[in-house]
Amino acid sequence: MRLRSNTNPSHPELMALIFVALALMVLPQAAAARELPAANPGCEETLQPIRWVNAKTPDEGLKTPFISAHRGGVNLAPENTLWAYRHAFAYGADVIEIDVRQTVDGHFFAMHDATADRTTDGTGRVDLMNSDQIRQLNAADYAPWSGSEYDPSPVPFLDEILALAQEAGGGIEFDLKSVRNYRKLMNLVGRHEGLIDRSYFNAQSVIAQRIHGLNPRARFIFNLSGKERSGRLFFETFTSSVFGSRLTRFTAEKIAAVHDGCGWIIPHSYDQGPNREAEQFELGRSMGADGAQVNQVDVIRAAMKNPIPTVVQLDTIDDAPSACLVNANNGLGVPQKTVKFFSEDDSLLGTAQTDRWGCAAPIPDGFSRAEFEGDETAQPAIAQNSMN
Q1: What is d(CA 174, CA 87) in angstroms, rounded to the nearest whole number?
Q2: Residue 50, class by beta-carbon neighbours within 10 Å (0-12 exposed, 13-18 middle, 19+ buried)?
Q3: Three-class SS of residue 303?
Q4: Which of 286, 322, 355, 362 is packed most tightly, with the most Cβ within 10 A?
Q5: What is the pLDDT of residues 194-204, one digit of tens each?
């Protein structure tokens, strides 16, 4: 648990929970860590099942919130595209949530819908398409992305997404929509060192057992229906590492029970719409949530009051100067930021907006330094021009 309380037993269900908890205390214990909890962790928390019935004061979640970017940074780029995933990692998301489907010729790709109609220029069921047909789709053929710098964007294949996650040092939340060959899926994931320990799967029952059999280090998310009792959720921590779903399905008591099993609470922040996402994130944190699954990674970064570290990188591309604002931790470009260019006497020569690569253009000739002033989402950065 993240908080201890001196409550007196009064609920008739309480004594049974206490006996269960005392019996479980003899299980092997392992140290908790910032990394994703392992499946069936053998948790070192001291159990307090009293708080599963009456938590009184809510738990405290992880000091640094754990962020899952739902379909990527969907307010910054078309959903379930490499651009959306890049921007999510650029804003420091821990994992990106991807919807995994498989083509008729066995290739894995990311798309939420079962048909191509809503988000692409194609039509029909995507699980009946082959990989060549998927590659021909434009995943930016819908508002507001049609005609933008992201149009066209291809539907990404799983090997591309895995490579990006590896590059960013992040993980993946695998939402398995339409998968036939689980051995092939797990072999692909296993080729990327350490990725399995930073990721988790949205799978239940027989499918979860199959995945665990293929890789015992696989982690899983349990999505609440809202009807589960706290004791049930504690037992779920023996097979699930992360607990998600709508924020309204969580209570302080359920959160306390999951924390007693060393599980993490990662509810949605987006169910009340984009204008209330920051408010929902903060409400979840006040209840003891360890983070959130979010739609707007930049909005949540601001709500966290923890702007990402940035660096301005100066270079020459095709004989022209380039100034790119990137996340200092993973080198991924930060879009839609204003970079200012100054002369040697500190006169402002001009400003430019960063593009999807995080690079600003046009750049004035003879500038002495490039500067990003910083904002709620990203720390300031300055680069001196040594190319003059």
Answers
A1: 18
A2: buried
A3: helix
A4: 322
A5: 999 999 999 98
